[in-house]
C-alpha cells in the first residue's frame, strides 16, 4: 500500500516535471504569449485538463518556483537561530543564495529573463509573487513578535525587507539581460545586498531577535 502510494506520487512528480519542461521549452522558443495550454498539452502528450490540474494558471508554467519563492523569506526568519534578528537572518539567507547562484533570487539565463520581461502577464504575475511573500513574511513576523491583531508594524517591516529583496531580484534580472555572467552577477549582488541590508540595520537590527535558548 505504501509502495503503491510512493509510485503514484512519483508518477505525479514526473508528469508535473514533464509538463513544466515542455512548457519552458515552448515559451523560450516562441515567447510566452504565443504558446497556448493546448500547445503545452500536445508537447507533453497529456490532456489539457491534466496541464491545468497541475498548473491552474498559465503563468505558473513559466514561473514554476512560485511556492518556494513566496515561502523562503518567511521560512528563513522562522528557522533563524537564537540571538539572530529577522534582518540578520534574511541577510545571511540572501548572501548564501547569491553564492549558490540560486534561480529563486534571479540567477537565470538571458533567454529566460527575456521571456519574463517581454510578457506583461509574467511581469504582473511576478509582482504578485513579491506581494505574496511580503504577506507571508509579515505573518511570521507578527507571530514571532507576539504582535496584536491589526498591528501594522510587522507589515511595515515586511514591506521594507521585501522591498530590498525585490530590488535585488530586479538587479539580478537586469544584469542577466545586459549579458553579465553568473560570477559577475554574484559579485554585484553581494556588494548591493550588503549595502541594502546595512541601510536597514539602524532601524531593524534589534527587531524580532530570537530569544536565547
From TrEMBL:
UniProt keyword list: DNA-binding, Transcription, Transcription regulation
Alphabetized GO MF terms: DNA-binding transcription factor activity; transcription cis-regulatory region binding
Database matches in Gene3D superfamilies: Homeodomain-like, Tetracycline Repressor, domain 2
Keyword flag Nucleus: no
DNA-binding region of this protein: 36-55
PROSITE patterns according to UniProt: HTH_TETR_2
HTH tetR-type domain residues: 13-73
Name of protein: TetR family transcriptional regulator
Amino acid at each position: 500500500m505504501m509502495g503503491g502510494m510512493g509510485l503514484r506520487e512519483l508518477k505525479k512528480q514526473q508528469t508535473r516535471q514533464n509538463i513544466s519542461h515542455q512548457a519552458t521549452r515552448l515559451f523560450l522558443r516562441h515567447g510566452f504569449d504565443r504558446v497556448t495550454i493546448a500547445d503545452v498539452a500536445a508537447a507533453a502528450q497529456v490532456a489539457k485538463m491534466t496541464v491545468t490540474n497541475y498548473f491552474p494558471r498559465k503563468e505558473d508554467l513559466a514561473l514554476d518556483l512560485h511556492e518556494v519563492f513566496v515561502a523562503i523569506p518567511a521560512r528563513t526568519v522562522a528557522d533563524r537561530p537564537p540571538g539572530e534578528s529577522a534582518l540578520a537572518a534574511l541577510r545571511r539567507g540572501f548572501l548564501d543564495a547569491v553564492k549558490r547562484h540560486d534561480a529563486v533570487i534571479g540567477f537565470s539565463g538571458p533567454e529566460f529573463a527575456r521571456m519574463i520581461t517581454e510578457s506583461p502577464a509574467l511581469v504582473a504575475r511576478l509582482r504578485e509573487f513579491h506581494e505574496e511573500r511580503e504577506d507571508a513574511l509579515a505573518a511570521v513576523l507578527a507571530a514571532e513578535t507576539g504582535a496584536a491583531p491589526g498591528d501594522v508594524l510587522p507589515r511595515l517591516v515586511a514591506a521594507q525587507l521585501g522591498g530590498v529583496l525585490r530590488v535585488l531580484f530586479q538587479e539580478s534580472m537586469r544584469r542577466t539581460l545586459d549579458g553579465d555572467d553568473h560570477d559577475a552577477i554574484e559579485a554585484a549582488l553581494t556588494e548591493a545586498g550588503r549595502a541594502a541590508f546595512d541601510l536597514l540595520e539602524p532601524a531593524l537590527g534589534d527587531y524580532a531577535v530570537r530569544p536565547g535558548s
